[in-house]
Inverse folding.
């Protein structure tokens, strides 16, 4: 009888243990644990798991690094109220609430935050939160955009010079040698003048390349691109964040080109003026478009806002360009205003301090 009772008890305990381990064998549990650890430490997003009692059960290295925490053994098992007592992150770590891709600002840093509740047998068993700096994501967008910029610039130049070569070939075939020579001289002098001007006024190759690329794109779009001869942008600190600077200027010029083409009620034109006199870098980008209504001057900087159709959005992610402009201007402690320019359209005036406060360029 005792043997039967012992067997029944052992069977009940085995079933209970298997139910608690979701039917997994010890070897499978060990394997899953090692795989989970490898996955968690290989991703760049911060991950924090909290149980139903509000205790931290898991935190990966990315999260530890972000919050400057001590090693895991000093965080695991502690209440979130204790660990995040003085942080704006605390209200976000509440179980039972699902949040998907929410933009938040925590302790002065912009994050993309997601939380998923953990439910087991209809019981709230905690939550898992993941977060990542928005700058990390926008940096990837920026790198993609720059690749697209250079690809587009090469495509435009190839298309433009192909047309010129066809024209030159036709002139030579009909023996119009004087016209052919004039065409070659005109093309060479115009492009050479721009290159020579940029090499003197804008010695920083990254910024000069962006302006040159926009000049070529304007030619393809049949937009007159005017670069003010009084422009100068030579006095930029060597350690300045040129990635953000070129993203800002490139997106503003793109916006001006699109606006000039879309209006169509006067000759399409975009004008750029820039100066490095004083303590700030000043850029004025003006277009001949319809202008921007007062009620839209804040809306256009929201993520996802666009007035363009997808097929015309060649150079940056749809609805992202001006959103990045506002974010980067803020990070560089700059200022951006919108007014009506002499060409009849919008005039964007950008002012960026040459020496942002420490940490603002990161």
């Amino acid at each position: 009888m005792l043997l039967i009772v012992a067997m029944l008890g052992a069977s009940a305990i085995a079933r209970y243990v298997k139910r608690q381990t979701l039917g997994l064998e010890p070897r499978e549990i060990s394997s899953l644990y090692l795989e989970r650890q490898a996955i968690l430490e290989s991703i760049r997003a911060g991950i924090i798991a909290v149980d139903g009692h509000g205790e931290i059960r898991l935190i990966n290295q990315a999260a530890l690094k972000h919050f400057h925490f001590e090693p895991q053994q000093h965080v695991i098992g502690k209440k979130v109220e204790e660990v995040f007592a003085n942080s704006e992150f605390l209200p976000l770590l509440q179980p039972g609430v699902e949040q998907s891709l929410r933009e938040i600002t925590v302790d002065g840093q912009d994050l993309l935050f997601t939380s998923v509740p953990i439910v087991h047998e209809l019981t709230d068993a905690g939550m898992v939160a993941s977060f990542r700096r928005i700058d990390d994501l926008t940096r990837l967008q920026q790198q993609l955009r720059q690749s697209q910029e250079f690809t587009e610039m090469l495509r435009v130049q190839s298309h433009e010079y192909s047309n010129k070569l066809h024209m030159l070939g036709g002139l030579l075939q009909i023996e119009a040698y004087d016209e052919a020579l004039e065409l070659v001289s005109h093309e060479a002098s115009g492009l050479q003048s721009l290159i020579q001007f940029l090499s003197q006024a804008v010695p920083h190759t990254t910024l000069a390349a962006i302006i040159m690329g926009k000049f070529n794109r304007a030619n393809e779009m049949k937009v007159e691109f005017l670069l003010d001869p009084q422009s100068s942008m030579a006095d930029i600190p060597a350690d300045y964040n040129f990635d953000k600077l070129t993203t800002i200027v490139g997106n503003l010029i793109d916006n001006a080109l699109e606006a000039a083409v879309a209006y169509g009620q006067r000759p399409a034109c975009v004008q750029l003026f820039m100066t490095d006199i004083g303590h700030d870098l000043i850029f004025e980008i003006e277009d001949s478009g319809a202008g921007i209504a007062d009620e839209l001057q804040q809306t256009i900087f929201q993520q996802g806002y666009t007035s363009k159709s997808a097929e015309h959005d060649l150079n940056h992610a749809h609805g992202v360009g001006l959103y990045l402009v506002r974010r980067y201007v803020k990070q560089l402690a700059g200022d951006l205003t919108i007014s009506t320019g002499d060409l009849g359209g919008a005039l964007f005036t950008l002012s960026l301090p040459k020496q942002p406060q420490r940490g603002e360029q990161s």
